[in-house]
Design brief:
By secondary structure, the chain is α+β, with helices and mostly antiparallel strands. 42% of the residues lie in helices and 24% in strands.
Length: 55
Amino acid sequence: MRKRLGIGVVGCGRISEFHIAAINKIEDVVLVAVADIDEKRAKETTKNMLPKNAI
C-alpha cells in the first residue's frame, strides 16, 4: 500500500493558485485543506482548486 502525504495551504491569495496547481501534480501528495482569514475566499478556492479525491 502506497502512502500519501496530505498538504494544507494557509492563505488563498493569488500565489496560492500556483502552489495548489503544483501540489496537485505531485504523485502521492494530495491537497486536503485550505485556510484563509476571508472565509469566502477559502470556500471559493476549495470549490475551484481542490481535486475530487481530496479528503
